[in-house]
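Hi team,

Filling in the usual template for the complex we talked about on Friday. All components are listed, including any nucleic acid strands or ligand strings, so the model treats them as one assembly.

SUBMITTER: L.P.
PURPOSE: interface mapping
COMPONENTS: two
RESIDUES: 601
SEQUENCES:
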Amino acid sequence: MSSSSDPTPDTADPSQTPVKRSKHRGLPGFGLTMGYTLLYLSIIILIPLSSTVLKTLNIGIDGFWELITQPRVMAALKLSFSTSLVAALVNVIGGTIVAWILVRYEFPGKKLVDAMIDLPFALPTAVAGISLTAIYSKNGWLGAPLEAMGFKIAYAAPGIVIALVFIGFPFVVRTVQPILENLESDMEEAAAMLGATRIQTLIRIVLPTLFPAMLTGFTLAFARGVGEYGSVVFISGNMPMRTEIAPLLIVTKLEQYQTADATAIAVAMLIISFAGLFAINILQRWTSLRSGQSR
Amino acid sequence: MAAIISRLSSRPTSRKAVSDPPWLRFLLLTAGISFIVILLLVPLAAVFTEALRRGFGAYLQAFTDPDARHAISLTLIVTVISVPLNIVFGLAASWAITKHDFKGKSLLITLIDLPFSVSPVISGLIFVLLFGAQGWMGPWLSAHNLQVIFAVPGIVLATVFVTFPFVARELIPAMQADGRDEEQAAYLLGANGWQIFRHVTLPNVRWALLYGVLLCNARAMGEFGAVSVVSGHIRGLTNTIPLHVEILYNEYNFVGAFAMASVLALLALITLAGKSFVEWQMARRSEAPERERVPDNTPIHKRFET
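RESULT (copied from the run log):
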């Protein structure tokens, strides 16, 4: 009889009861996949990364501070963080405009432009580096006219900024774009009906809604810029104290077998970056609370 | 109510109210398009023009150099090892994270993302600290005549580290959007864990997986900073394509450097085309009737944050 085989909570083994299974144990395979995930994560990421902490403990706080405050190191850190800041700001403006035209306007080749946005993610940094250097050096397509106007781009700080703008460009577009796509036009309509001009609506209604996404894009572009190496080394000229970025100084120190110096710079970069990310995270929460947006 | 709203929003006056005046439209379009042309298209075009500067013969000549050939084969070897490793990890991690409940899930996702926020140079440095001559395991390695740094194993390790999150970060949002209903149903019908994964989960996320693999592959072949630190730049031995580009460039062999670079640029274009194809497939799937799925173009900030 079929009814006798129906599992009932009283007669069946609890582990055989479907309801109980799905409620308390969930799907199978958790132990294996989770175990593998944690093992692989530890071997590839956690253990290697902890080597920087161990090395720093070896150096000691005083030693660390001494290594970090060398003028050449300070100059490199300052240059890395300041050029990344400028590049991320350029990207916030350019990226938001590009996201806006991609979502709100129609123009020929729009699909192609949309696909091209991710080029900096897909193009290896060394390729971007030599290409940008060829363009902006004094015989290059853009370098020659700019040089004639008195602007030196390659082998100077502006060259570093251009490389970092290239590298960080997709972040802002790709964070702002989905928010714009999901933006209902009712607020904009209401503003227009209450007599606001289009410019007022854009500045007072649209921009504040986009602000959290812009901030996220800014953060990602900034963080990427601080650590960037491949695209910058070619265009920067690499002069100590002037156009030497922090990641390059790490490489230089390693080549001279000064691992302590290299580690100290790396740890300083990680600390400043994480502190910055943390601060922006808090700002982000605060602004999304204020604008009453739930993400 | 919904009908009224849809009628309201389709009224011509309100359409006009939310569209920009022509001068602003012109200004933003010009600014946006020139930004893209100058920033993205000009560098891409420059790679191919510089590579072909001395003609097609000189371009092809660049690939006959044995060091160039070795760089290409080393890059392929490193990619063939590191990408599958991260595919297996990505599948395991996303299955564990999205199909099960446990404490510390967001911490785990943050840890998986960690390589994104570490400079490539630091990614190489950590392996030098572990396996280098002065590193923690350096004496043991040299006692056993093993070499990791300035050798292929180090290049593989650094590549695995920097490409670690790519597959997982595409799969996690895709599996999350699919939910667990189909897997639960399969389980109740008696499928075991592997069968559920193979016949239910995997087919549902195949496009997200493909995109993750494409990104992982592009980065594995193109990684420069991390590999540069651990490779030692030994010509014909530990030079990958990007490192060989650097060597040729520093020797003022620009045609050679840009010829090698053009291979990587082609790879980037293929990756972008693949991405567009995957997005098109996903959009098609989400438009398919009786399947209420969220289109899976997960915004990138969702992929990077927790």
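MY TAKE: Chain A touches chain B through 103 residues (CB under 8 Å). The first helix of chain A runs from residue 18 to 25.

Thanks, L.
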